[in-house]
Amino acid sequence: MAGTDRSRNTALGGPAFILVEPQLGENIGACARAMLNFGLGDLRLVRPRGGWPSDKAVATSSRATEVLDNVRLHPTTAEAVADLGFVFAATARPRDMVKDDLSPRQAASRLRSLTASGTAAGILFGREAAGLGNDDVALADAVLAIPANPSFSSLNLGQAVLVIAYEWFLAGTTASDREASKATEPLGLATREELVGFFEHLEVELDVGGFLKPPEKRPRMVRNLRNLFHRAGLTGQEVRTLRGVIAALVRRRKV
Amino acid sequence: MAGTDRSRNTALGGPAFILVEPQLGENIGACARAMLNFGLGDLRLVRPRGGWPSDKAVATSSRATEVLDNVRLHPTTAEAVADLGFVFAATARPRDMVKDDLSPRQAASRLRSLTASGTAAGILFGREAAGLGNDDVALADAVLAIPANPSFSSLNLGQAVLVIAYEWFLAGTTASDREASKATEPLGLATREELVGFFEHLEVELDVGGFLKPPEKRPRMVRNLRNLFHRAGLTGQEVRTLRGVIAALVRRRKV
């Protein structure tokens, strides 16, 4: 299922494209085709509604089997992004969250420099009708919005994937771009797992300290806190430092 | 049928998108949706194989009725481009014809300047399996090729239309649009005073918790912590939240 033994079979690489609860196999197939059109191979699905594998996905993929055969399934969005150091959320709707908001072209440039510096990156795409939920967006470091006609701004899922894949491809067409961007990216961004470990550590201690109250406000408070730390683009070392900070602040509780 | 009561039609414009012998109504609907996503309204069909109108086109258009209701049918490609002053042929395969060969981005820029100067322009797209025939390409002034993975370069028809429509839209994003988008930046960034107050609060509590040791390392540790919070671009509200977090974490020290 995880296709680990096949990942070496192809020269495909690039960021992970993560579809959260896609409804239609046809759209998954269209995404696979669009990704392969632009040399991308890492497609991940979170709880596909029509099950997996999907004959309809095969039908619309136009033989993009290199991508479909290596699809990874994940039970949660958090698990799907666990190994990634930087995550974009593709979203059309404005959010009441303070995050970097990039165009596809800006995001592609960023994705190129991230991968050039060894940071695994990915893009989250929401379900066809509703887009990404706030909890999914909260897992992302930045928001990616495709500029469009304001009175008809909802792109088909495969079309949204295509725009990002196309910009990714164009952003890599000159070697000098890649060289130039290498220097600007901080090395060693924290993995999603390290970040979540830090968040949970902080939230447990805040619960003990009675901060995340009342219960109905807790989800929003947690999301806002996670968002502000996401924005900082923390390195693994910084995450360890912050965990040391928490430990130091609560130290005398225990004695 | 022509949507006479739709005043919004006047807002749609841009080059004509001409599909030559499209096979599948689904693809025509996807093209209409992609066009409307980027404010384009002039869709023309040359001998659609599945007939017209098409229920399948309606189903995949996602209510892009402004475009579908105004589709024009033509018996030949020559007739479909008769009123146009400049025509691109979208093609993946190389041709043994001497014509300008532009990328979508270059073509979009050209299309913008053509229409700005009052020249009606259009883009020809071929049938799904075979692309444009040489006789169709011969009607064009220039060739437009979408750069793609050389070993999997055939885009779905709706996807090819989307790339051109997207580039057209971006090419019209003027400096004033960019100025306007600046207004969406988060308001209420913390003042320097608020930030310093937060830093000092944190550092006092970390000294109490014995974290900022040994003394010779303190300046560097403080600098690193301040840097990571600086990077987040905190709002005033977020600074107040973080001070609440510190207070909650240290609460039990005092009791």
Primary descriptors:
alpha/beta; seven-stranded parallel beta sheet; about 10% strand; 2 domains; homodimer; about 260 residues; disordered N terminus; Helicase, Ruva Protein, domain 3; about 45% helix
Can you tell me the residue ranges of chain A where pLDDT is under 50 for at least 5 consecutive residues? 1-10, 175-184
CATH architecture heading of the largest domain in chain A: 3-Layer(aba) Sandwich
Radius of gyration of chain A: 19 Å
CATH topology of the largest domain in chain A: Alpha/beta knot
CATH class of the largest domain in chain A: Alpha Beta
Tell me the overall shape of chain A: globular
Could you give a short account of the major beta sheet of chain A?
A: 7 strands, parallel
Integer average pLDDT of chain A: 86
Number of domains of chain A: 2
Number of helices of chain A: 11
Oligomer: homodimer
Number of strands of chain A: 7
Give the termini distance of chain A in whole angstroms.
Answer: 49 Å
Largest interface: A-B, 59 and 58 residues
What does this structure look like?
2 copies of one chain form a homodimer. The first copy, chain A, has helices at residues 25-37, 55-60, 65-68, 77-80, 104-116, 134-138, 157-171, 175-182, 192-208, 218-231, 236-250; strands at 16-20, 43-46, 72-74, 86-90, 100-102, 121-125, 142-144. With 255 residues, chain A is of the alpha/beta class. Chain A has 2 domains: 16-181, SPOUT methyltransferase, trefoil knot domain (Alpha/beta knot, 3-Layer(aba) Sandwich), CATH 3.40.1280; 192-254, Helicase, Ruva Protein, domain 3 (Orthogonal Bundle). A 7-stranded parallel sheet of chain A has the order 3-2-1-6-4-7-5. In chain A, strand 1, helix 1 and strand 2 (43-46) form a beta-alpha-beta unit. In chain A, helix 5 crosses helix 7. The radius of gyration of chain A is 19 Å and the shape is globular. The relative contact order of chain A is 0.14. Chains A and B meet through helix 1, helix 7, helix 9, helix 10 and helix 11 of A and helix 1, helix 7, helix 9, helix 10 and helix 11 of B.
